[in-house]
Amino acid sequence: MSFSPDWGSDLELFTLVVDAGSFSAAARRLNLVPSSVSRAIDRIETRLGVRLLLRTTRSLTVTPEGATYLSGARRILADFRETEELVSNQSSPRGRLRVSTSILYGRMFLVPVLGDFIRRYPDILLDVSLTDTVVDIAGGQADVGVRFGPLSDGALTTRKLGETHKVIVASPNYLSRRGTPKVPEDLLEHDCLGFNFRRAAPTWPFRKNGRDYSLTIKGSVESNNGETLGQLASEGVGITRVGTETVQDQIRSGALVPLLEEFNPGDVEEINAVFVGGSHTPVRVRRFVDYLVEALRQPPI
Length: 301
Description:
single chain, alpha/beta, Arc Repressor Mutant, subunit A, D-Maltodextrin-Binding Protein, domain 2, 3 domains, nine-stranded mixed β-sheet, rod-shaped, disordered N terminus
């Protein structure tokens, strides 16, 4: 036990003196001189107006009032330590940890690395939601979210997990029916499948002749899920622009064909873990985010 003057010092000191059996033994444990311990006990007794200990050069006896004080002190100290451990979770992080990410990213990247975290921290109840609806982290709907692209909420703390590139794709069947766009402006005559996020403007970025610009697209389908857009594109519904990881299997199989690569501006979309930061961030949140940074560290996809 350590003596901390600013943390329950009177209760802690008194119980230690009783347990040690003498002022000198308690002083040795606390690295103090016996007179300092004696003065501290005198201060407690003066404040309470009762005698807690009867001491002679040979013995130390707890008075009835001292026994009552000792019982209360032990109970309070035990409750306080239990409360501190429960709140800070410093020794073993515990409690429910709500995590939210997109369906595709969760299925392909997040879920496969969770096993080791669960084994490492068995007292944490991991509550994982895979959804393409953006949840309100600051509003308390989740503790940690994995987000793509720019964040609209500046109150959140971010840790970078990786990054992804975008690719424009269509199926050979669609291109045989509608023709292959040669320049970005050709997309104005095509069915372009886009996202329905409020933060996702219906524009696609391009670079031509060293100049970056955006082109407003339109089409018959909008979705909050890149995997859905990629599947619809592979079915010949239209042209879409999604993250490379979303359609890498279809590109390899030939079900989708990359388009307008020479006009690709090489824009990178960051993948971030987001959470409410600050000095009061629960340890289970900090440990989980630290784990994700290591487990999901990857080259651009």
